[in-house]
Amino acid sequence: MYAFSSNGVLQWQLWLDGMTPVQLDKEATLVEQGLQVYLPKRFHLDAEQVAQLDSLDPALLNVWATQIAFAIRMEIPITLVKPEQRAATALRDGTKFIESESRVASAILAVDEQEAGEEGDYLRFTISY
After folding, report:
1. Packing angle between helix 21-32 and helix 35-42, nearest 10 degrees?
2. Which of 68, 110, 111, 120 is the most interior residue, by most CB within 10 Å?
């Protein structure tokens, strides 16, 4: 299991890099079961992170799971941008924003698997307080 941090997600990506296409498909299928199932299997989540995950809109979690599964299958880098420390105002206000952005044009247009996951494609999640 990996830390749910920028570095932990990088370590998870390195682990995925060593997988065969069949193994990647199996991992993507596990993601498609839902992030509430997948994230605790791969990442150390504290009680607050589990509560935050449980509070998110199920439709949004489904979109993110679909994006992550696609990125895994197409070997597109996935990153997490997350501050290690919360800002003082976030501790007081309890405000947290999660944003996802991606560029997967070359993966979608890829004619064969050799072209998939070309440099420049990415899936990034940014958490800010």
Report:
1. 120
2. 68
**Domains of the chain: total:** 1
AA letter at 109: L
CB atoms under 10 Å from CB of 125, counted, come to 19
Instruction: Report the SS3 class of residue 118.
Output: coil
Q: Which domain holds residue 9?
A: 2-128
Task: Give the confidence band of 13 by pLDDT, cuts at 50, 70, 90.
Answer: very high
Q: Which residues of 22-51 are buried (b: 16+ CB within 10 A; e: fewer)?
A: eebeebbebbbeebeebbeebbebeeeeee
**Position 55: which residue type?**
S
Contacting residues for 99 by C-beta, under 8 A, at least 6 apart: 125, 126, 128
CA-CA distances (angstroms) from residue 67 to 2, 13, 17, 46, 115?
A: 20, 15, 17, 24, 18
Token representation of residue 91: 């501790």
Residue 33 above 90 pLDDT?
yes
